[in-house]
Design a protein that fits this description.
Layout lengths: L20 H22 L10 E3 L3 H21 L5 E2 L12 E2 L7 H10 L5 H28 L2 H12 L2 H6 L4 H4 L3 H19 L4 H18 L3 H25 L1 H33 L4 E2 L4 H6 L18 H4 L29 H13 L6 H14 L3 E4 L2 E6 L2 H4 L15 H20 L3 H17 L7 E3 L4 H7 L6 E5 L9 H10 L2 E2 L7 E2 L7 H7 L13 H11 L2 E7 L6 H17 L6 E4 L3 E5 L8 E4 L7 E3 L2 E7 L2 E8 L3 E11 L4 E7 L2 E8 L5 E10 L2 E9 L6 H4 L9 E11 L2
Parallel strand pairs: 8-9, 8-11
Antiparallel strand pairs: 1-7, 2-3, 4-10, 5-6, 11-13, 12-13, 14-17, 15-16, 16-23, 17-22, 18-21, 18-23, 19-20, 19-22
Helix pairs in contact: 1-4, 1-5, 2-3, 2-20, 3-4, 4-5, 4-8, 4-17, 5-17, 8-9, 8-10, 8-11, 9-10, 9-11, 10-11, 10-15, 14-17, 14-18, 15-17, 17-18, 19-20
Amino acid sequence: MTNSEVEAKNVSGVEAGSASPHRLLFHHLLPILAYSVAALVYTWPLVLHLDEQVPSAITVDRNQNLWNFWWFRYSLLTLHHNPFYNPLIYWPDHQAPGVALWLHTFQPLNMAVGLVLQQFLSLSATYNLVLLASFIAAGYGAYLLVSYVTGNRWAGLVGGLAFAAAPFRTLILGVSTNLYSMEFIPFYLLCLLHMRDAVSEFGLRSRATLKWLIGAAFFLTLNALIDWYLVICVLLLTVLLALAYVWYARRKGRSWLAAQWSALGLMAALWLVVCSPLIIPTMQAAGDASLLSSLPEVERISHSVDLVDLFVAPDNQNLEAPLTNPILANFPSYLPGCHTNLNQCLQRRGFVGYTTMLLAIVGTVGWWRRRSGYWLGATLLSVLLALGPVLHIGTHDTTVPMPFTLLEKLPFIGIMRAPDRFMMAAVATLAVLAGLGVAWLQQRSRAGRWLAAGLSLAMLVEFFAIPLTLAPVTTSPFFTQLGADPAQYAILELPLTQHYTGDHPRNLYQIFHHKAMIGGYLSRQVIDKFSFGADVYDWFGDYSLPPTITADRPSDALVTMLNDYQFRYIILYKWGFKDENSFQQADAHFNQLFTSIGASGSRVFEDAGLVAYHVPEQAPQPLALMDSGWLKAEQSNAGPYRWINKDKATIRLITPQAGSYTLSFSASSFVRPRRLALFLGATQVWQQQIPANATKSYQVAGLKLNPGTNYLQLEVLDGYDSPAKFDPKSEDTRNLSVSLADVRLTQP
């Protein structure tokens, strides 16, 4: 492959005088200054509110990213704890070392920059400066890449703008810092091209080759320190470049191909070594059974680009949106509300701008035989992958399978759950094609140069998406008060949720209160056993105090559990309940509960958003709680009892300290005798035959338990039956095996 086939690097003197002050000024400082001004303009009025507000088009991911910045600093400087493990979320089941954040969009590079900035600036100012720096770096990196490919600085400036201010990036500016921070893609591609040329001109073992090989590995590492989606995108572009080498090797020869592939292999090997401390635990986390690493198919489709997205501007594009939104009338099912409410629309990320598309077409046609082939192929493949597993046109499922269905079957890449992320690669390669279009027009007649200037100006105007939606980062005064308390404890936030995106306000509040909480919004949903255990859900899901089989009074078991797990406060979010009546029911439930145990002053705070109850404090003591696999408690003359649902159930054993404990209980079998076995982990600790229709007491002594939570698994070895099986007139279709009553955990 000749240099002219992918770039004309010496045209217009782009590479001449590499060390001269003139080149430093015009090829580096002035472009950086230009993109700095553009960053302020295209994010207006952010510069006026750096310390007060942040971009907030969609607060779900914004809150998560703000929380990332806070947690990284708080874990290192206050807790002196590994930030990749968080013991303050999904409490109490992940206390030590905490929930692993290896698969979370943690962006360690951004967090490290934020750590430094937060020593001098507020969290809001830090967040905003990281975004502005990303815009400037993205523009500058794309400028260098496009200038190298085209040999034309003006084309480089336009290509840099096409990348930095692309509608895709503008749309996610108020959403996700991890997706917005794609500035290292062009730097990586630039190093790959330099490395290719160094191998061609000086050989594989030359100093120039080594320099650019290290540079490529360095920028690939920076991409990995932002987001794995970026790594997958740039590796896709690398593989395509390696395949392009096969085509050009027809003229360059096999030795040239071998040298180029060797350089790519050495670069990849260096990157694997450098990033192994990040790659290895991430791969291990991918197999963590407590994380839901894949999205349901319907969500994977919703995170795919609809074909209509490519041609219809999002609402934040001031000029095109009024003109293109009528197109949606032809697609009545197209994401209802999406084109009128950005908060209901996580899609519409396929639009790249009409000017960019037009210049890219000119660049493709104009340089078809020389330079545009690779960039066109990379763009088309990236867009095809962004369309997701099945082609959708205006949300109409065409059932046409797309290339993503093959890619998602590959190891590691299978964790990529949002196909629309491939637009990050498409935006970068389209910027190069747009730059090629400008360069081609400028080499034509004077009319061509005027046309290039006119289209460049049109791009400047087209990309305006201002004013940017901003919002302050605020919370309840109660959480600020908790944050001033240096003591470490937990808060129980209600209503219970499925966590994931629904918990994003709770992430934001933790920035202020610094206390452990039962849920949290991470990029990978964590399976929460605590919130949906039988007893806990009765108390905090149904807001009831049914008879309990683990204490004399339900309130005793509840307060003991709260203290054992260091829950100091219960928080009721008024906005979280489905209606006012539901909130009033929950509020009355806890008011009555604490009044009944002599703690009538527990309702300690109320404002427009929440009510807070202080939990009466008592010394921790052993407690057994019914966890999963139990039917509702029933009442007999002898007291309450609970059936195992089918043949498996779990008891949560809470202990204040390690030691030997005794579990006592009464049990009865339905209709016929059954064997009941108890397991701690994989170890069977007890087995007895439970008599039918007669209650018998048992003791399991010598249970070696760890401090905190221990799970005791119960397994009925002889199956289960339904009452309807023995009485055709019965409507009771439950599957019953063994019932338990009077469950107590004590320490001799």
